[in-house]
């Protein structure tokens, strides 16, 4: 089976990871298995400022999937571990960090980004909020290849 590394942080990304994992376990994941998950490091939240792992990190830990939480995607130890995993494909959904070229060069088949807008509209952060502010009546999801420029890679699929 081919190796997939998933990158994400908030609840919407955890749902994407959950769907990918279910498809993979059911034999409907295109021959991919989730080899590792990458998420933002735990952050302080709530009134007591308790250190809390992201929803994606919590899901990975619960399901026993290797979890990586680098401070930066340029971190040498992180990149070295990814080289060892040798992913065939990476999938990002609201990861929250810029991915440098040295990262993008690692997966054999590239990196796909699940973006909650109909690109090229609303590139970058907060696309749903900007869609609502603009009064758009229709929006959707785009899956596109990740390139160095933010949300500018070739579009693989869009759905409204």
Give a written overview of the molecule.
The chain is an alpha/beta fold and 160 residues long. The protein has five helices and nine strands, in the order βαβββαβαβαβαββ. It has helices at residues 11-25, 55-63, 76-85, 101-104, 127-134, and strands at 2-8, 32-38, 43-45, 50-52, 67-68, 89-93, 111-115, 141-145, 155-159. The chain has a seven-stranded mixed β-sheet, covered by helices on one side. Strands 3-4 form a two-stranded antiparallel ribbon. A hairpin with a 4-residue loop joins strand 3 (43-45) and strand 4. Helix 1 runs parallel beside helix 2. It is globular.
Largest sheet: 7 strands, mixed
| Overall radius of gyration | 16 Å
Query: In percent terms, what proportion of residues is strand?
Result: 25-35%
Number of helical segments?
5
Shape: globular
Structural class: alpha/beta
How many E strands? 9
Low-confidence stretches: none
| Approximate helicity band | 25-40%
Distance between the termini: 31 Å
Order of helices and strands: EHEEEHEHEHEHEE
Task: Return the average pLDDT rounded to an integer.
Answer: 95
Regarding quaternary structure, what we see is single chain
Main-sheet strand order equals 5-2-1-6-7-8-9
